[in-house]
Amino acid sequence: MSLLAVDEVYLQYGASPVVHGVSLAVAQGEVVALLGRNGVGKTTLARGVVGLTPVASGHIWINGIEITGIPAHEVARHGVRIVPQGRGIFPRLSVDENLRIGTLLNPAPDPRIRDLLHELFPVLGERRRQRAGTLSGGEQQMLAVARALLSAPKLLVLDEPTEGVAPVLIDRIEDALRLLFAEMRMGVLLIEQNLDFAFALAQRGYVMEKGQIVLAAATSTLRRDAEQYLTF
Amino acid sequence: MTATVLTQIVNGLSLASILILIALGLAVIFGLLGVINLAHADLFMAGMYAVVLAQGVTGNFWFGVLAAPLIVGAIGFVVELGVVRWLRARPLDTLLATLGVGIVIREGVKLLFGAGYRQVANPLPGSIAIGPVAYPIYRLLLIAVTASILAGLAAWLYRTAPGLRLRAMLQDRETAAAYGIDPERASLVAFVVGAALAGLAGALMSPLVTVGPDVGIIYLARAFMVVVVGGVGSLLGLVGGGVIIGGGDTLAGYFLNPTIANAAVLVLAVVILRFRPGGLFR
Amino acid sequence: MAQSSRQLRRIMRATFDRRALLRGAAAAGAVPLAGTFRARGAVAQNTDPIRVGAIIPFTGLETHNGLSMQYGLEIATGEINTAGGLAGRQVEVIMEDDGSDVGRGVRAAAKLVGQDAVEFLNGTLTSSVRTAVFEETRESQTLFLNPTYYEGGLCDPYYFSSGATPNQGIEPMTAFAMENLGKSFYFVASDYIWGTGSVAAAIPAVEAGGGSVVGEEYVPFGTSDFTAVINRIKEAAPDVVFPFVAGQDGITFLKQLSDFGVRENVEICADSIDELIVPALSNEVAAGIVNCSCYYMMLENDANQAFLETMRSTYGDDALIGSFGMNMYNNMKLVQAAADGLDEWTKDAITERLREATFDGPSGPLTTDPSNQHMVQNAYIATIQPDKSFKLEETIENVSPQAGCTVP
Question: CA-to-CA distance for B126 and B136, rounded, in angstroms?
């Protein structure tokens, strides 16, 4: 049984259909990339999975429990977290308060994870009283990731974590995520346009085009075949 | 001379505390939900009638002060679930709907209590000497009570999980929801707290003013002025707005006749908004 | 618990004015409410009911007076219809709410005169509404009877006022105060025509009596904090404060005067604090205020006892009435007196007869002064007792109205 199972899901953005009958799965401990050009429906699919965009038809299960059509805050109780595109940090809350939002769902986070996050992202400790909006793009991304991981997710949806992050920081985030994924063993759905980043982390992936999955394969295959869908 | 200055300082503090108290519920609902609650004046008035009712039953004013936020909070609960929730995305409709809710509350009070004025006696008559100046005990108490309510509200917003949820929801409803915060519930909490504060303000003000079904309207404009001048969305702004309007009123009232003083404070508010449209403390 | 819920019910019941009102309206079948019946049959030309337009503040600043005015109006109408109506025609009342607001008052008058074609208007409370309606009725030559004491200055062949002029309220009050309370006065008034006009009438009255005015002050509508005014009163240290502060602002002012300890050294006299107002005041605030009015519920005469009995049995034991409500009644009864023996109702016939009309009712004898068409009437000075009852101090009988104008 998959951690996440998406079955023939259709999603609309306003009145226009964006995702047409997508099916995919993520197992526990697995990092799955979702690739595709801008505007093919990746973000809408991610929003659909976490309950922010209503599913027009189809089904979504988490650990065999159907979550189709339930509101986002209840989906969250099933262990689903998103680091949304644009990071979704709360700019006028302090860094510390942003992290506390993560612990609202998981009041006693694993001290090992806490220490690890502290070690990997020391800047978050240094600036804990600062307003999150004053952090740099990369730092905000670290904060968003740390907030999600503190909440002990079963499934983590990462929507373009490298977007707008300085190249030097991308490598650090990549290393940190690899370490954290290995440590925490959750399922990850990683939406990316930065192929090197995605291939470095994911075991397998899907390629979307015009709202549909056009390719599903292991990372090694994707490296070879995905090119035709992903030239920008 | 010192006596006069001292009197004016205490007057200013007293008026500022009253204005802050009156504007508190409005500011909370405006700041946290972006809803301009035109029923605020009538929730405030309902708080006064809660005192009339509780005082009638128990004979004790303070029991009314406890009952008012509960009763008016309950009204807020119904209003949020029945009206405000469904109109959140449409600010103008919310404005009109809350105006209508206000009328319903007012007419309901007339139906239950009659259109006549009601009496709430001052529970603490008498004065205390502050240096050379004797000042009514109840007004001094009100300064302290307002400060405590502000401190309590700040602690709730900035030190507790429900407060954190509300502030998160205010900034990004969707991400908050994705982190398990039920936005509908948080909105309900914010509205109920705002309504309860309006009711508490009404209860505390009832010994100072006239209790009647139409009394709320008088205070609505002032409450708005305080919120807008101070800047929406922060308690500091609310305090700043209260001190500026209250202090301005006291200062103008000392030198000018009341009608001109009233106009002068309005002009002050307009001037401030001309140069700081978002309010002074934004 | 049982006791407290009983208590609760009692309190609630005591407050159900509207319900009492509906009960009353149903009981007094003779009282036609707005629009309940219209002309029926066209057998003879003169059986159509006479429509009366009432302009009453049921909402806004003067809300608390609305019901009292309705009581007076409806009781008179019931009596008139039981006695055979006016010139053989039943009376039908159409009530409009002016919301204590000039614009709404004018619209109400226009609707009553234009659309409902009423024979005359009875009502208005605030001076701003009255003055605006007066302009309309003078233009359209509509018969208009005013129930409210006011600053005076309105005279027209079709305008009558049972409401007292300043010399019937303010002057007796200042005279009494100078004799009994002290000689220096501080006036605080709402900043509009009634307030300013009343102070303008009071100042010469005080000065003519050898008193002095140590302060006068005008406050805008909706003043909720009188701290600055009260500080100035303290500094001026008058013997007497005489407020002309309208509606709820006036009550707030009295409460705050007490809070700030002004009452320890200063007396209060007034012309606007009657049995309708005192329920809003605590015993401490109310006690000792001296007031001059042309009517009190406590007046001891047979007509008043009978009236109060009718009112209480119709509207409930808690029903209250003040001078405005009583004058709504008086106005109707004056019209009834004028119509007595009249074969056919015409505006001019009734107006002609109103100029000589008299009525001896709950507020004492009323006689029209033909020069200004206001009423010669009694002024009563009373002191509020510690239990908030009114004790009659002095009756000044048959005071002629000085309206400040004469009918052209």
Answer: 6
Asked if B167 lies within 8 A of A151 by C-beta distance, the reply is: no
Q: How far apart are CA C72 and CA C314, in angstroms?
A: 11
Q: Give span(s): CATH 3.40.50.2300, chain C.
A: 2-164+298-377, 166-270
Reported in sequence order, the residue ranges of chain B that DSSP labels E, i.e. its strands, are: 127-130, 133-136
Asked whether the predicted pLDDT for residue C6 surpasses 60, the reply is no
Q: pLDDT for B233-281, tens place per residue? A: 788 889 999 999 888 888 888 888 888 888 888 888 888 888 888 888 7
The answer to whether residues C173 and C244 touch, using CB atoms and an 8 Å cutoff, is: no
Of B53, B116, B262, which is closest to C279 when you measure between CB atoms? B116
Q: Is the Cβ–Cβ distance between C108 and C59 less than 8 Å? A: no
**Amino acid identity at B256:** L
Q: Is B58 on the interface with A (CB under 8 A)?
A: no
Q: Which domains does chain B have, with CATH numbers?
A: 2-275 (1.10.3470)
A61: which strand partners?
Answer: A5, A66
Decide if A82 touches B, using CB distance below 8 A: yes
Which chain A residues contact residue B168 at CB under 8 A? 90, 93, 97, 101
CATH class (in words) of the domain with range C2-164+298-377:
alpha beta
Angle (deg, nearest 10), helices B61-82 and B183-205: 150
- Residue C96: closest CA among C122, C74, C77: C122
Give me the CATH number covering residue A183: 3.40.50.300
Give the containing element (helix H, strand E) for C269.
Answer: strand C267-270
- DSSP alpha helix (H) spans, C193-271: 193-208, 227-236, 247-259
Residue pLDDT, tens place only, C154-203: 999 999 999 999 999 999 999 999 999 999 999 999 998 889 999 999 99
Count the alpha carbons within 13 Å of B149 in the hemisphere toward its beta carbon: 28
Say how far apart CA B208 and CA B136 lie, in whole Å.
Answer: 11
Nearest Cβ partner for A77 among B161, B165, B180: B180
Q: What is the pLDDT of residues B74-119, one digit of tens each?
A: 999 999 999 999 997 788 899 999 999 999 999 999 999 988 888 8
Question: C198-219 pLDDT, tens per residue?
Answer: 999 999 999 999 999 999 999 9
